[in-house]
Amino acid sequence: MRHDFLTLDNGLQLVGEHNSEALSLAAGFFCRTGARDETPAVNGVSHFLEHMMFKGTDKLTYDDINKTFDRIGARYNAFTSEENTVYFGQVIPEFQGDIVALLAEMMRPALRSEDFDMEKNVILEEIAMYEDRPLWVAHDHVRKLHFQDHTLGFAVLGTNDSITGLERDQMAEYFARRYASDNLTFAIAGAYDWEAVTGQVAGLCGGWQPSHATRALPAVSPGGQTTVVTLDRFKQATCYLMAPGVTAQDPRRYTANVAAAAIGSGMTSRLHWALVHPGLAEEASLYHDEEDAAGVYGGMFVCEPERAQEVLDIYRATLAKAQAEGLTEAEVGRAVRRFGTGLAFGAESPLNRLVTVGFDWVYRKAITPVDEVLAELRRVTAADCNALLAERPFDRLSAVCVGPVAELH
Amino acid sequence: MSDVQVHRLGNGLTLLIDESNRPTSATHLSFPGGAAADPAGAEGASAVLHALAQRGAGGRDTKALSEAFDGLGFNRGGGALQAVDLFTLTGLAADWVPAMELLADIVLRPALPAEELEPCRTLALQELASLEDNPGYKARIELTRRYFPTAYGRCTLGSPEGVRSLTADGLREWWEGSWRPDGAILAVAGGVPAGQVVNTVERLFGGWNGAGPAGPPPSTDGRMAYEHLTHETEQVQIALAYDDVPPTDPTRYQSSMAVQVLSGGMGARLFTEVREKRGLCYSVGAGGQAVPGHGFVVCSAGTTTARSSETLEVLVGELRRLPGTAQADEVERGRVRLLSSMVMNEESTSSRAGRIANDWQLLGRVRTAAEMRAGIEAVTADNLNAWLAEHPPRDFTIVTLGPSFQWPEGLAL
């Protein structure tokens, strides 16, 4: 495994993780922008723009882009989150030049009005699709509740109103600011040729202009309330919970991930034993997720609506007990082992490594190899977890329950 | 692609080994059974038996068993599928032997404690209830039920009535009679030395014997053409199925290519016509499916009521336009996509175990990479069009699920 780095004069950063055993490579552009970088008036623009990037450039139509991806046998897609928009493709090595050229070309879209109007329908359909998914509805609501007026609580898809009202020129203005060379990272993983890729990216992207785009990083003031979204069309009660965690820049993120997993991931976790094993909840879990100068513990459960209060009480009590009494060395050891297996399997896929390597760079300007991540995880002790839990993150737990439930407290 | 070793045990179990120089291992154990074989009136027996079998085995209680798997860093998966029971294990190759010992305990020596049945039953009923909150999944289940009108088309989770009827004694009897090795496939991929795999499997599973009951074959005789199911949702789900050649048919590569032309990527016909040109929906696609003795294609789309009628019209129109119209550039894109996909699947230990198990189940042998390549390379626009003339998409089974659906004017099935 070898790591490669280069920064172009215009601020575009290139990073790579070479794996000589890989049979393919994955390449992508990581734009440091997402829902948190929006204003209420343009909420959803980051994600809508992600769709528009596939709609063509001055030289290419959407059909040219789609057919080029298909012609080189790529596995490709894009995703938008609260703080990142990522475009990627995985190909066999003979198509390295094609995938890099296509992705680079796509990063300078035409944003044609007729495409914008047509794609708006697709975005509204996507919003409707997620309205049929209770966990997604609960997720969007709990972020609002947890982050309150912070932009990290903005919905990634936007709303029917914000998307309907969005205009093409607002998107173009947002694009110019956020897709500047110094707000983008190009990453590549697998069996690639670094010399060829750097030459090509410098040639294709060297003329892009920087914008000195910034991101506001105000402190989060966690909400900590519980609400219900009564929707009788759903059959089960689906609850999403959120509490303050550690940031993407905090070295304790390994500890937070292990602690969350010991409490709520897998069949030996505390939440599984308290809720799933006795049949009270169909699912019950907890994870930790790092964000830019923020972080959350996120959790969920699904249960019969008449049991929602009972399950919520047990869920809360399980977290309270963990932060009051701590975790055992055996629980922590099991959680670390599970992460180790996940890392070994993840390392087999250049696409998986691309996303990890890209985010490593975007958040920390450093790539942590798989072996080092594993070593960091193995260094985590119960005492580390318990010191973190002693800060009582779950005292400020926000919870939103979606389904045929009238009230919860 | 490495050579796959095949070993037949005297009890009817076939062991497939794809050894590679990896730290990981992936294991698939399957045997005939699944939801199709559930006794009438006890639909869900196989699904609940899987859950109950995880609750203690080989002298360990549930907690000890879970801790043993976690201590090895192994993940368990699987469950009752349409016509097979499946167990999967993923973990580091170095710990494969003790993990397999635990799996053998679950399959051969489950405790099946009577007091654990109620929570398993409650969870199974909750899973069935949750189907109502997952309209895309529900539409596919309702489609399968109508496309395969016999017990073969059952929901793998069972039915609420069936799950309520289960007893601990009945499940023990079901386990004794149905979890049997005749026709079983055990596929192991990754870094476990082949010799160690053979010795371990013979030691752990050599004494297992007998044959379990099989459900009906996957017949689609008497399938219905169309049904709308009223469901309170934002979107209408459209699910459609039609017959394809069986997996053993030598023209199976033509049928794979036909699906590529339809839905092989964002440049393929369905995405282009339904989403890109008309903005009718977010998701639309088609996929080739195969079960022993039968192949079929499933298409799906989700769209709001106002756009749903046109979506189905365009979807069916594209299926009917296929014969005689496949172009050389479409076949060329499909060819590269299929070949590239083979290479990328090779990178994943789990995909490799799944692929060899699937080949054995469908074909009774494991194809070599060279054979697969040659099959893909041999498809041309001409021979694909000739094949499509003989196998046009037709006799559709369609389910729509949503608040309401207006059948497209002039669309005849």
In percent terms, what proportion of residues of chain A is strand? 15-25%
Average pLDDT of chain A works out at 97
CATH fold-type name of the largest domain in chain B: Cytochrome Bc1 Complex, Chain A, domain 1
Task: Give the largest chain-chain interface (CB within 8 Å).
Answer: A-B, 66 and 72 residues
What does the largest sheet of chain B look like?
Answer: 6 strands, mixed
Strand order of the largest sheet of chain A: 1-2-6-3-5-4
Q: Report the total helices of chain B.
A: 15
Radius of gyration of chain B: 22 Å
For the record, the count of structural domains of chain A works out to: 2
Give a count of the beta strands of chain A, DSSP E runs of length 2 or more.
11
The CATH class label of the largest domain in chain A is Alpha Beta
Poorly predicted ranges of chain A (pLDDT <50, ≥5 residues)? Answer: none
CATH superfamily of the largest domain in chain B: Metalloenzyme, LuxS/M16 peptidase-like
Overall pLDDT metric of chain B: 97
Low-confidence stretches of chain B: none
Topology:
The complex is a heterodimer of chains A (about 400) and B (about 425).
Chain A: E1 2-7, E2 13-18, E3 25-31, H1 45-52, H2 62-71, E4 75-80, E5 85-91, H3 96-106, H4 113-131, H5 134-147, H6 160-165, H7 168-178, E6 184-190, H8 194-205, E7 226-230, E8 237-244, H9 253-264, H10 270-276, E9 281-291, E10 294-303, H11 308-325, H12 329-346, H13 350-364, H14 370-379, H15 382-389, E11 398-403
Parallel strand pairs in A: 2-6, 7-11
Antiparallel strand pairs in A: 1-2, 3-5, 3-6, 4-5, 8-10, 8-11, 9-10
Helix pairs in contact in A: 3-8, 9-12, 9-15, 10-11, 12-14
Chain B: E1 5-8, E2 14-19, E3 24-32, H1 45-53, H2 62-72, E4 75-80, E5 84-92, H3 96-108, H4 117-131, H5 135-147, H6 160-165, H7 168-178, E6 185-190, H8 194-205, E7 226-230, E8 235-244, H9 252-263, H10 269-276, E9 283-291, E10 294-304, H11 305-321, H12 328-346, H13 349-363, H14 369-377, H15 381-390, E11 397-402
Helix pairs in contact in B: 1-4, 1-7, 3-8, 9-15, 10-11, 12-14
